Amino acid sequence: MTRNICALTVTSDQVATRRTAKAPSLLTAYVLHRYDWSESSLILDVFTREQGRLVVAAKGAKRPYSQLRSVLLPFQRVHLTLGRPPKAETADAQHADAPTREVQTLRGADWAGGAAMLTGAALFSGFYLNELLMKLLARQDAHPLLFDAYAHTLPALGSGDDVRVQSALRAFEISLLQQIGVLPDLSLVTLTLDAVDPEGRYVLRAEAGVAPARPGDAAVSGATLVGMQAALLHGSLPALQQACASALPEWRGLLRGLLHYHLGSSVLRTRQVMLGLQSLAPLSPAPAVAAHLGSDPRPS
């Protein structure tokens, strides 16, 4: 009799677990990219606050009268309800960036408010941020602070103020590098752990961290590094943006090399597109925006 009761208890727990696993989850997200999955459906790469980057199948999202068409837009905060992984509709579901075993089904999506849609030069900057997230973030690895930084960076991109835009881009790059664990303590010389001298000149090397500058290096003052570390410890995005604004050319050079190293041999498509537009239309916004971006397809 005792063994039967225990068996019944285990069975009940298993049923409860299965029911919990099937329950839909509500996530706050931004759409980073979308791929065609079938004639009527999409595969989405989304950045969620609760679970990080996810791959989601939006079935029927391409149909003319689908309410998802006006919701699943880039740079707009949305609430997503997800379910179980879908069955493959076509061979396209085996896209290298979205293996079927990692795909979750979109059950519903609602607009969650936010800034106006990015346009013009701001659109390029926004897609640059999206590409950085897709290339540098692992899937299903939550970064809520980085999500918040992304959400607060988007409005700055459309401000029309060149200094504010560049400061916002640099601050986000620094936040991203810190959140994925590749940004050293900027107040210490990495190899010796000596305190950075505010009067000294330093470089930020991908392999060696903060190091004293050598003749000919594109260096930054120790005071600039210490100020940035203080902003990082403060945890405020406006503080990071202000620290970047005080030395924009220096931070652009330092971060370009660091980003290029961690991106590996990958070439950012966003910058390629902008450089292509620059060659076709010199008066387009692409040249100015290309100068803002920290990653360069050429070796540093």
Q: What would the average pLDDT be, to the nearest integer?
A: 81
Helical segment tally? 9
* Shape-level CATH architecture of the largest domain: Up-down Bundle
Radius of gyration: 23 Å
CATH class type of the largest domain: Mainly Alpha
Report the sheet-strand fraction. 15-25%
Remind me, CATH topology of the largest domain?
de novo design (two linked rop proteins)
Uncertain residue segments: 1-24, 89-100, 295-300
Let me know the number of strands: 8
Strand neighbour order, sheet with most strands: 1-2-3-5-4
Give the helix level as a range of percent: 40-55%
Separation of the first and last Cα atoms: 74 Å
Give helix and strand order, one letter per element, not per position: HEEEEEHHHEEEHHHHH
Relevant terms:
single chain; 300 residues; alpha+beta; OB fold (Dihydrolipoamide Acetyltransferase, E2P); de novo design (two linked rop proteins); 2 domains; five-stranded mixed beta barrel; three-stranded antiparallel sheet; 8 strands; 17% strand; disordered C terminus
How would you sum up this structure, described in words?
The chain is an alpha+beta fold. It folds into two domains: 24-111, Nucleic acid-binding proteins (OB fold (Dihydrolipoamide Acetyltransferase, E2P), Beta Barrel); 161-292, de novo design (two linked rop proteins) (Up-down Bundle). The chain has nine helices and eight strands. It has helices spanning 2-22, 120-136, 144-157, 162-179, 222-234, 237-245, 248-263, 269-280, 286-292, and strands at residues 25-36, 42-48, 52-58, 78-82, 103-111, 201-205, 209-212, 220-221. Strands 1-2-3-5-4 form a five-stranded mixed β-barrel. A hairpin with a 3-residue loop joins strand 2 and strand 3. Helix 3 (144-157) packs antiparallel against helix 4. The longest helix has 21 residues, at 2-22. 35% of the residues are buried. Mean pLDDT is 81; it is low at 1-24, 89-100 and 295-300.
